[in-house]
Amino acid sequence: MFFPRSFLAFIRPHMGQTAGRIDGDRGFTLLELLVVLGIIVLIATIAAPQVLRYLGGARSETAKAQISALYTALELYALDSGNFPPDDVGLKALVTAPAGNSRWRGPYIKRASGLTDPWGQPYRYRKVGRGGQPDVYSLGRDNAPGGTGEDQDVTN
Predict the structure, then answer these.
(1) CATH (domain of 85)
(2) Which pTM does this prediction carry?
(3) Is there a domain that residue 9 lies in?
(4) How confident is the model over 103-150, as pLDDT tens digits?
């Protein structure tokens, strides 16, 4: 079939822009989007509990590492001061000098935020704990004695 050049020059730039999309589909249907969304929800439902379990374990492991560092700082404090800090002063003695302690050579930890456990509660301290040594501990996520999993107490 023969068409004049002017007609072909006019029609070629407009080909593929018709309502039927001759040059192929460039979008997704609602059904395709819903199927993909359903698959994502299914994967998230399966994976979310596993991720939360790892997160809880990571917080407990972080608390163990921080407690170990705090206990080491307490030992340095005791070497300088001759004794562990009293219960009423507690772990704050690692950051600021207690009144009347002229032998304090701290701070023994860099920031006061290091005195807070991964769940946002302050670490607890007892001068005379198990075996006559000080205890540094966290009550876990529930902030209550005992518990299991992430609610379990973490101590030195």
Answers:
(1) 3.30.700.10
(2) 0.64
(3) no
(4) 888 788 888 888 899 989 999 998 887 777 899 999 888 888 888 877
